[in-house]
Amino acid sequence: MSIVKSAVLGIGMAVPSKVLTNFDLEKMVETSDKWITERTGIKERRILEDEENISQYAIKASLEALERAKVSPEELNLIICATVTPDYLIPSLSVLVQEGIKAVNAGAFDLSATCSGFIYGLAVADQFIKNNPDWKILVIGAEALSRKTNWKDRTICVLLGDGAGAVVMGSSPEPEKRGIIDVFLGADGSQWTLLTLKGGGSCYPPFDKRLPEEEYYIKMQGREVFKVATRMMEKIALELLKRNSLTTDDIKLLVPHQANLRIIEYLRERLNLPKEKVYVNIHKYGNTSAASIPLALYEAEKEGKLKEGDLVLLVAFGGGFTFGGALLRW
Ligand code: ACO
After folding, report:
1. pLDDT digit string (tens) for 60-111?
2. How far apart are CA 169 and CA 131, in angstroms?
3. Range of the structural domain that residue 235 is part of
4. Are 97 and 199 in a shared domain?
5. Residue 283 annotated in active site
6. Which residue CA neighbors atom 22 of ligand 1 most closely?
7. β-strand 219-220 against 253-256: which pairing, if any?
8. CB contact set of 144 (below 8 Å; sequence gap of 6+)
């Protein structure tokens, strides 16, 4: 019996053209380009204009991924959109994409797993494709974090950005050479209070006066989250390699969630990887949550750092906490 492996058949990305630099932020809160650069590695981020919505960018990224995969929208069976900042709660962002690209034969749902959302989406698509080898699935990571950013809170507003990335998944034409090898998904709700967006959910509906205004935005206890993120990302990377009898020497490219350059550097050192084997674009986009990994994969490929058949390790960590990893041949 031949093995079925799911693989990325095409990738796309789209980010708003409005750039918010560290120097712009210096005028908004008490911060400095020096502090942001040294503590996070971020230089600028993309932000939606007032009249824009993230669905526009999710649609644009999806159309590019479809074109590159040579798959038509009608061929799609499923659309999975990882996001914590959809245009609306009803309908889901995935349904807006389904309509926008005219994927008339696809089911569609959103997936909420913060910064690990794209990896969760890949894992779900992988399972569907193994059971239905002729299926084509669009996995999107799209976030409008600027809409949930407290622009008066310097501990968070310097970190976040907007953007969308998408991949078309299908069964690999060459399963020995390309495709997803393994995925790791995890969660730890015991420390959920360290990273929250409480307002607007069903506990505290919009305009609920019981909740202070700041709780209608993302809040994070950065130092505490940092400690858990570094520990978990290393653990996931080593676990995925170990259970597939691989070592860090086998990795062609590590593509980590882009939350903080210091977290990425810590991981790189713990895994003993040279700089050229770790992809970084946080300086351009900041933390775009579920969009972070597809944006990084897209640019790594464009820059010639990711070629067909390369062994890639993806690792992510986010609020919840959620965490995840994927090992694949590109
Ligand atoms: N500008 C200037 N000073 C600042 C700023 C700022 N923007 N923000 C905080 N500071 C100050 C603090 O007040 C503090 O001052 P103090 O020493 O006088 O009290 C000092 O800088 C150090 O603050 P820390 O919070 O300890 O700074 P740290 O080095 O930890 O960096 C950061 C903060 C960047 C948030 C870091 O902790 C981090 O990246 N955490 C993890 C982020 C992450 O991985 N999140 C998960 C995914 S996000 C998601 O799911 C949406």
Report:
1. 999 999 999 999 999 999 999 999 999 999 999 999 999 999 999 999 999 9
2. 13
3. 179-329
4. no
5. no
6. 223
7. unpaired
8. 48, 53, 54, 85, 87, 162
Residues 6 or more apart whose Cβ sits within 8 Å of residue 112: 82, 83, 84
Is the Cβ atom of 260 under 6 angstroms away from ligand 1?
Answer: yes
Phi, psi of 101 (to 5 degrees): -100, 0
Q: Which atom, in ligand 1's list, is nearest to the CA of 287?
A: 48
**CATH number of the domain bearing residue 16:** 3.40.47.10
DSSP classification of residue 302: H
Assigned domain for 1 exists:
no
Q: What is the 3-state secondary structure (H, E, C) of 5-37?
A: CEEEEEEEEECCCCEEEHHHHHCCCCCCHHHHH
> Residues 130-175: pLDDT tens digits?
999 999 999 999 999 999 999 999 999 999 999 999 999 999 999 9
81 is catalytic: no
**53-82 as b/e: b if 16+ CB within 10 A:** bbbbbbbbbbbbbbebbebebebbbbbbbb
Domain assignment of residue 315, yes or no: yes
Helix then strand count (H, E) for the chain reads 10, 13
**For 122-125, which contacts have Cβ atoms below 8 Å and span 24 or more sequence positions?**
122/167, 122/169, 122/180, 122/183, 122/314, 122/326, 123/183, 123/185, 123/324, 123/326, 124/80, 125/6, 125/78, 125/80, 125/169
Q: Do 68 and 200 have their domain in common?
A: no
Give the nearest ligand 1 atom to 84 CA: 51
* Ligand 1 neighbourhood includes 315 CB (under 6 angstroms): no
Annotated catalytic residue 257: yes
Tell me the three state secondary structure of residue 307: coil
Residue type, 27: K
Distance, in Å, from the CA atom of 319 to the CA atom of 211, rounded to the nearest integer, reads: 20
95 close to 58: Cβ distance less than 8 angstroms: no
Which pTM does this prediction carry? 0.97
C-alpha of residue 223 to centroid of ligand 1, in Å:
6
